């Protein structure tokens, strides 16, 4: 009898342990505030209605790499925004579901916390949260519906748990998806290039890099060619090497612009035909091919374009138009030095930073 009693006791304890083991862990919403590592950059003006938290950032990171966001479950945001390429695509046109191709090159998704003037090449998304959902429903990209994405995510306990941690409910909505992805993308900051270390007094530029820096920042001067520079800061200025504007940089004639009107497609203003978002030059070494349509395979081609390839069109930037008659007077040595300086803007830590990689 004693032996039978002990066997029954062991069985009861085992059953009790098994039941406890299968009981889901209670998820509570205990949000942890998150502070961006801006370094020497100014503090960004982030949306007041989407305060950064560790839990929402983690959810956004999960969604950024989630292939079930596409109709055939093969494409994620990260498929076209590669960490090794400064969250840019290395193809001229990103490949969507069933091999579909659009007509624009994927933009780099770094330092978006300082972008205050729309997203995408034409600015059609007013907030980063809006941009985050666009590719899901684009037939040339993920080709999926938000409703189907929600159904697929809701079938996975890990997502229900993380939405509960982040938003206090297992109910998944497209708005909460967009807020989480917005938060994760805000954290993708690149501020550890050689140039940043130079500014901090931690590194010295080579003679070629320094000469390139001077040419980059010196204005074009048609009257004194020997003192003339490349005037790159006209568009690529400030700590992020961009001006957050939409401009026509002379890569197309009016006839060529007709194939993609750029900013005009959002505003309907004639003056915006052929204008596209000015992108950051940070990590430009990693983001080939270049321009909104990826027409230039190398930085050398880009420099040649600004030196002697500006095309006339109605909305051409006036500063670029002023250089057409003479070009920028850049010699081969000048071009090489500008290229050397541009490469000092590469932040190699970004390529392997585990904070931004797939979980």
Shape: globular
How large is the radius of gyration?
25 Å
Portion in helices: 25-40%
Please tally the β strands and state the result.
2
Distance between the termini: 54 Å
CATH topology of the largest domain: Cytochrome Bc1 Complex, Chain D, domain 2
Q: CATH architecture of the largest domain, please?
A: Orthogonal Bundle
Content of β-strand: under 5%
CATH class of the largest domain: Mainly Alpha
Descriptive terms for the model:
359 residues; Cytochrome Bc1 Complex, Chain D, domain 2; 36% helix; 1% strand; disordered N terminus
In words, what does this structure look like?
This protein has 14 helices and two strands, in the order H-H-H-H-H-H-H-H-H-E-H-H-E-H-H-H. Helix 2 packs antiparallel against helix 6, helix 4 packs across helix 7 and helix 12 crosses helix 14. The N terminus is likely disordered. Helices cover 36% and strands 1% of the residues. By secondary structure, the protein is mostly helical.
Question: What is the fold's blueprint, element by element?
Answer:
Elements: H1 2-22, H2 54-64, H3 77-80, H4 128-137, H5 146-154, H6 157-167, H7 174-187, H8 194-199, H9 207-217, E1 246-247, H10 254-257, H11 264-267, E2 276-277, H12 299-308, H13 318-321, H14 332-343
Antiparallel strand pairs: 1-2
Helix pairs in contact: 2-6, 2-7, 4-7, 9-14, 12-14
């Amino acid at each position: 009898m004693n032996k039978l009693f002990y066997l029954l006791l062991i069985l009861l304890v085992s059953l009790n342990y098994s039941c406890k083991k299968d009981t889901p862990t209670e998820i509570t919403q205990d949000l942890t505030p998150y502070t961006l590592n801006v370094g020497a950059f100014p503090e960004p003006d982030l949306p007041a209605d989407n305060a950064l938290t560790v839990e929402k950032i983690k959810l956004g990171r999960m969604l950024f790499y989630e292939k079930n966001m596409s109709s055939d479950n093969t494409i994620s945001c990260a498929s076209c925004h590669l960490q090794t390429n400064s969250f840019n695509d290395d193809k001229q046109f990103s490949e969507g579901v069933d091999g579909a191709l659009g007509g624009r090159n994927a933009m780099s998704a770094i330092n978006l916390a300082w972008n205050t003037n729309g997203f995408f090449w034409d600015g059609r998304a007013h907030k980063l949260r809006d941009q985050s959902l666009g590719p899901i429903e684009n037939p040339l990209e993920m080709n999926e519906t938000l409703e189907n994405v929600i159904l697929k995510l809701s079938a996975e306990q890990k997502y229900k748990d993380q939405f509960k941690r982040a938003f206090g409910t297992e109910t998944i909505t497209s708005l909460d998806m967009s807020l989480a992805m917005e938060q994760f993308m805000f954290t993708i900051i690149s501020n550890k290039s050689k140039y940043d270390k130079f500014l901090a007094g931690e590194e010295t530029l080579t003679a070629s890099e320094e000469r390139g820096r001077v040419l980059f920042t010196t204005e074009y001067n048609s009257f004194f060619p020997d003192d003339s520079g490349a005037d790159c800061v006209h568009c690529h200025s400030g700590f992020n090497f961009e001006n957050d504007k939409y401009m026509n940089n002379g890569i197309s004639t009016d006839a060529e612009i007709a194939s993609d009107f750029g900013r005009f497609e959002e505003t309907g203003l004639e003056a915006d035909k052929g204008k596209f978002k000015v992108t950051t030059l940070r990590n430009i070494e990693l983001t080939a091919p270049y321009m909104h349509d990826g027409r230039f395979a190398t930085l050398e081609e880009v420099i040649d374009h600004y030196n002697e390839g500006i095309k006339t069109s109605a909305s051409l930037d006036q500063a670029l138009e002023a250089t057409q008659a003479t070009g920028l007077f850049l010699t081969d040595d000048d071009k090489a030095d500008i290229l050397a300086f541009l490469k000092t803007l590469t932040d190699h830590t970004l390529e392997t930073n585990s904070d931004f990689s797939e979980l």
